[in-house]
Amino acid sequence: MTVLTRDSLERVLGPLDDAAVADIAALGATEEELLEARSWLANEEAMRAAGKPLPTARVAQIIEWLEPPDDELGG
């Protein structure tokens, strides 16, 4: 498993400020977990239909961090 670095975070998520890098790094996640979280956010129905196991606790934390706040969703 690959430890997250600023470069790996920005490769997956695009440019980030120092606070965002610190927040994600504090989760202790790997690059693989970050990619899995992004896949779940982009394709939850497809992931469930494919029989993928539900996200682990750490992947779920990353998903929560990546999701926009409700006020940004118009809710």
How would you sum up this structure, described in words?
The protein has 75 residues and is an all-alpha fold. The protein has one domain. The chain is 61% helix and 0% strand. The chain is built from 4 helices and no strands. Helix 3 crosses helix 4. The radius of gyration is 13 Å and the shape is globular. The chain starts with 5 loop residues before the first helix and ends in a 9-residue tail after the last helix. 13% of the residues are buried. The model has no long low-confidence stretch (mean pLDDT 86).
Radius of gyration: 13 Å
The beta-strand count equals: 0
Mean pLDDT: 86
Give the helix/strand class. mainly alpha
In short:
Helix 3 (31-49) crosses helix 4.
Provide the descriptors you would attach to this structure in a database record:
75 residues; mainly alpha; 4 helices
What's the structural blueprint in terms of helices and strands?
Layout: H1 6-13, H2 18-26, H3 31-49, H4 57-66
Helix pairs in contact: 3-4
